[in-house]
C-alpha cells in the first residue's frame, strides 16, 4: 500500500470515528452518522474528481502556457521552444498511471451512506 493511500485511509477512519462520536451524543444516532458519512464521502468524491482531472492531463495546457510565458519573458537563447504535443507527451510519461483510489473509496462510502439511508427510511 502506498504512503498516500495510508494517509487517505487514516483520514477516512478518523472521519468515521468522528461521525460515530457525533452520533453517540445526538438524539438520533443513525441519522447523524448518515449525515456525517455523506459529507465525508462527498468531500472525498470532490478530491477524487480533482485527482482524475489532474492525472488525465486536463491541466497540461495551463502549465504549458505558464512555462512558455516564462521562457518568452526571460529570453534564454539556449532554451529551445517546445511544441505543446511534445510537452504533453513528456508530462504523460512522467505522470504514469493512477489507480483512482480516492474515487473508489468515496464511491464505497457514498454507497454505504445511501444503503444506510434506505435502511433508515425502512425502519
Brief descriptors of the model:
DUF3899 domain-containing protein, 123 residues, transmembrane, membrane, transmembrane helix
Could you describe the largest sheet, including whether it forms a barrel? none
How many extended strands?
0
Share of β-strand residues: under 5%
**Count of DSSP helices?**
5
Question: In the residues, how many domains can be counted?
Answer: 1
**Global Rg:** 22 Å
Classify the helix fraction into a percent range. over 70%
* Derived structural class: mainly alpha
* Secondary-structure element series: HHHHH
Low-confidence stretches: none
- Mean of all residue-level pLDDT scores: 81
Overall morphology: elongated
Terminal Cα span: 38 Å
Write the layout of secondary structure elements.
Layout: H1 3-24, H2 29-56, H3 60-74, H4 84-95, H5 101-122
Helix pairs in contact: 1-2, 2-5
Description:
Keywords: Membrane, Transmembrane, Transmembrane helix. Residues 34-117 form the DUF3899 domain. This is DUF3899 domain-containing protein. It comes from Holdemania filiformis. The protein is mainly α and 123 residues long. It has one domain. Helices cover 80% and strands 0% of the residues. It is elongated.
Concise overview:
With 123 residues, the protein is mainly alpha-helical. Helix content is 80%, strand content 0%.
Amino acid at each position: 500500500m502506498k504512503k498516500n493511500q495510508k494517509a487517505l485511509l487514516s483520514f477516512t477512519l478518523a472521519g468515521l470515528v468522528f461521525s460515530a462520536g457525533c452520533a453517540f451524543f445526538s438524539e438520533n444516532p443513525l441519522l447523524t452518522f448518515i449525515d456525517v458519512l455523506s459529507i465525508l464521502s462527498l468531500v472525498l468524491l470532490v478530491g477524487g474528481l480533482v485527482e482524475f482531472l489532474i492525472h488525465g492531463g486536463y491541466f497540461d495546457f495551463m502549465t504549458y502556457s505558464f512555462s512558455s510565458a516564462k521562457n518568452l519573458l526571460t529570453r534564454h537563447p539556449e532554451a529551445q521552444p517546445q511544441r505543446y504535443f511534445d510537452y504533453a507527451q513528456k508530462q504523460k510519461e512522467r505522470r504514469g498511471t493512477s489507480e483512482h483510489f480516492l474515487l473508489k473509496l468515496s464511491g464505497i462510502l457514498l454507497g454505504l451512506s445511501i444503503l444506510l439511508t434506505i435502511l433508515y427510511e425502512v425502519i
